[in-house]
Design a protein that fits this description.
The chain is of the alpha+beta class and about 375 residues long. It is built from 11 helices and 9 strands. Bound molecules: adenosine-5'-diphosphate, 2-acetamido-2-deoxy-1-O-phosphono-alpha-D-glucopyranose and magnesium ion.
Length: about 375
């Protein structure tokens, strides 16, 4: 994207100071994200995003959800000034997004100063803080009227839907890639039934549908310089969901000693210390709302979420890489293989994961933490 076009887009927003340099920013897989630096040191920097319109086809509904959530978090005492919630800049016409003549959609957030997102976690404190932040986020939204939120990407964590999408891609095989994927496809099929436990618990009414974040990889919580959680970001996928989704998706990126797309599968090991610290923070903040079945679903989610992500990466690879941004020709396959290796490792430690969650839950229940 050329700077002249971006400057013309920025011009449609009500921004303070004077924007100088802009740089491509972050490691998200969905939007085009830029940091806008202010020339005036006492004025804020901003984050500009070109919204991925092929994924989020109803941008008005998407931005309605985000504004509704931000307003609700403000009722819980969060604010732009304390940088513990995202805040949107408005267009000069007072809207939360801008549509360019070429059909592209843009939005601007205040840049959260002094914060950082981590693809790889470094210590227990970060893990615990991440757990607290994502747990508190669900607790804060637990009294938001669900009818106010559009189901923006229906069936987002519905395993049956993701398996159907995989089957569909396999049937079409548009890039003729399937011939080399027998191992990965077998891996998925062998586990498909076992991975439906959470769906069955939900379908039989054991799990409460709550407003969940649904994209809780660790780089979607920004930490400050003291490694304290500052703000949960990436609010695009907030929808009704099960609490297990947010737990499992975060654990997927926290317990793994390697990157999400690690090529060398030997490097994919489990860091149980980080897992415990995260689980402790998450359950501390949610124990007041968690029921017993929900606690039981948390261990299953640690297998389900990396499995779902592996299925989605594999589907996109077979399909010809239309969904996720990729940085090399076989990137989605590399991601899928890494997620499946993580599932294998997690299966080996499942009993310990389950026991750890029960112990932590009992501890917080006894002390009445929330
Ligand atoms: P994606 O959906 O593509 O992951 P995100 O909304 O997560 O997009 O943004 C991508 C990255 O940009 C984040 O991982 C984070 O590093 C950075 N980022 C997003 N919003 C802010 C913000 N308000 N302040 C600082 N950094 C931000
Ligand atoms: C995408 O937006 P980002 O990069 O935080 C994806 C998540 C996946 C994740 C895998 C809207 O998240 O569901 O878990 O990539 N978001 C969407 O890294 O599909
Ligand atoms: Mg993100």
């Amino acid at each position: 994207m050329d700077d002249t076009k971006i400057n013309a887009i920025i011009d449609h927003f009500e921004l303070q100071g004077e924007i100088g340099d802009l740089e491509i920013y972050g490691s998200g897989h969905i939007h085009e994200t830029y940091r806008l630096k202010n020339k005036q040191a006492d004025q804020p920097d901003y984050i500009l995003q070109k919204i991925n319109h092929s994924i989020f086809t109803d941008v008005a509904a998407l931005m309605h959800n985000i504004e509704t959530v931000i307003n609700h978090l403000q009722l819980k005492g969060k604010s732009a000034a304390s940088q513990d919630t995202l805040s949107l800049a408005r267009t000069k016409g007072g809207k939360s997004y801008y549509q360019h003549a070429d059909g592209s959609y843009w939005r601007v957030y205040l840049f959260l100063k002094g914060t950082k997102g981590y693809d790889l976690i470094e210590n227990d404190k970060q893990a615990r803080e991440g757990g607290r932040a994502y747990g508190q986020f669900i607790a804060d939204l637990s009294d938001l009227d669900p009818t106010k939120i559009h189901e923006i990407l229906p069936n987002f964590h519905n395993i049956q839907h993701r398996l159907n999408q995989l089957d569909d891609a396999i049937a079409r095989d548009p890039e003729n890639r399937l011939k080399d994927l027998a191992q990965e496809v077998d891996f998925v099929k062998e586990r498909a039934d076992r991975m439906k436990t959470i769906k069955q618990m939900g379908d039989t009414g054991k799990l409460s549908l709550r407003i969940t974040h649904n994209d809780t990889k660790f780089n979607n919580v920004l930490l400050n310089k003291k490694d304290e959680a500052q703000c949960v970001i990436d609010l695009d996928t907030i929808m009704p969901g099960y609490i297990a989704f947010d737990f499992g998706d975060a654990v997927r990126t926290i317990i793994n000693t390697a990157e999400e797309d690690e090529k060398d599968l030997e490097k994919i090991q489990l860091n149980m210390g980080l897992f415990k610290a995260f689980a402790d923070g998450f359950i501390e903040k949610t124990q007041a709302i968690l029921n017993e079945d929900e606690v039981n679903s948390l261990s299953q989610s640690c297998l389900l979420l990396p499995y779902i992500m592996g299925v989605r990466f594999l589907t996109d690879y077979i399909d010809g890489d239309h969904y996720y941004k990729i940085h090399s020709p076989h990137h989605n396959l590399q991601r899928a293989k890494a997620q499946f290796e993580l599932v294998r490792k997690l299966e080996g430690k499942f009993d310990e994961i389950q026991q750890t969650i029960q112990t932590i839950s009992k501890k917080h229940h006894a002390t009445g933490n929330s």
